[in-house]
Each structure stands twice: as C-alpha cells, then as structure tokens.
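In the current project phase, the collection of sequences with tokenised folds has grown. A representative record is quoted in full directly below:
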Amino acid sequence: MAERRFTIGTDPEFFLRRDDGKFISAIPHIKGTKDLPEALENGGNLQYDNVAVEFSTEPAVDGADLVEKVRNAFKDVKKKIPDNCILEVIPSANFDEDQLDCDEARAFGCSPDYCAWELKENEAPKCEDKTLRSCGGHVHVAMVEGDGNDFLTDPYGKIDVVRMMDAVHGIISVILDKSEAAIVRRKLYGKAGCHRPVIQDAGGLYDGVEYRVLSNFWFKSPQLVMLIDSLTKDVLRIIREFDYKQLLTDIGEERIREVINKGIVEDAHKVLEDFVRPLLGEESMYYLDECMANIENYNFEKEWEMEA
C-alpha cells in the first residue's frame, strides 16, 4: 500500500431513535457544537448538527485505518447517547414537532457549498415540510506531499476530482442508496457536484476537497467504508493516468447529474457497466460486488460490533 499517501476522512451524521421507534433530537444529549465540538476519547470530535449526531474522524492513511477510526468513534459516541436510543443510519426522516422546539432544531441548512459543474455557490435548500431532516456522509480527500496528487491543491484540480467522484462514487451511490429516504434527501442535499474546496491554512485545515454528495448509507458496514476509500483511490489514479475529461464527455455531464439528482437506478447501472467498472481496480471490484450483494442485509450494530 506504499502508493496510498493521500489521506481520507469523514464527518457523518446520524439520527437518534428511541426503543419505541421515535426519532428524538440529539441537542439535549450531545455537548459538542459546530463552534465548539467535543473531543472523543479515541480521536475525532462529536457535535450535534441540527437534531442529528455528527462526528468527525482524524485523517486516515488507508481504508483499514479509516474503518478503525470510524469503529472507535462509534464506540465513543455510543457512550454519549441515552441507553434507550440507537444511532439510525437513514438518509432522511421526519421528526415530531416536540423535538424541534428550539432555535437550533429549527435552523434548516448549513454553511454554503458549491457545484462543481456550474462553478457557483449552491442555493440554500428550501423545504415546505418543516419536520424533515437529512443526514450526510461526506468524504474529505487531502493531498500529501509526494503522493502525485498535486492537482488536489489546484482550484480546478479540485473541481476535476469532484466531477470524477460524481462519475464513480455518485453513480454507484444511486445503486446502493436507493431507499425512499435517500430519494427525499437528494431533493434537498447531495446533488451532483456538491462540494467544498478546502485550502490548508494556519488553522491546520487540509488541502483538498470535501465531497458532499453521499448520504450516511456507507456507514452501514465496514465493507462500504472500504469501498468508498478504494473508489477514492481509483478516482485519483484515473485523473493521474487517463484522459478523464474525455471519459466525462463520453458519459455526458447532463447524464451524470440527472442520474444522481433523480436517483435513476437503471441508468446508473448502465453508466457503471459501460464506463466505470472497466477502470476500477481489483480492490474496488471486490468491495463493490460484496456491497451490492449484501446492501439489503447489513445489520449496522452487528457489523460494527456495537451490540450489547
């Protein structure tokens, strides 16, 4: 794995669900906030984001490292939530109004993000259903000196990475993340090209991109985390070694965006088989096939060894 010298991190969100099935706000139970997150015992930070529980991992050097960091975060977070609650891995859900009765819970939306296809700031989402909330599973990709991925430090290089991640991660997510809750989320958050460019500064931020298209679906199992990591490795390799701009032209910008934004599963399969799968590495092929076969059967708490 010597060639794996970029870093990868994440900041997924999850809902709290009580034993009786009711979704409850995380605000009364989580101390950390966006401005002042709580440090987790085994690394990373914890905060509430609107009514969701959100944690962030420290940068990982490969898939196994990312899995371990996520596993440790889940163990730490479980100690922070009520005993009669579980973390629910679901892209969107409706909350009873009694769980939204404060300013933090009523705030809808987040800091601005951007569209890699239109090269402009995304409009803040507007939702008529004031009880609807959603959860993301963003991917943070950072350049490491000497890794050959210097394009991650260039503004247009970051755009290229996001567009290729749409063609790979985004298309595959449509196949693996096709629940009604996922479709509802895509109407508000996670549209094709959604990202934030990140520039290293005195505050210690990394130089790379935050890919914001994916929901939290890929935290159902360590296999899915390994898949996302491996696909990221492939995207950077494709940019380094292939005519990726021609590949995007061959697939079609509008096709990529429509498949992701509308969740068109049948066309996502066609794009995967005709364009994406032939470029994937052996590791990605293995995890993709495993995840496609098992996606409906993953038991979240069992997969992450969180059962009592």
Q: What stands out?
A: The first strand starts at residue 7 and ends at 10. The mean pLDDT is 94. The chain has one domain: 7-96+129-300.
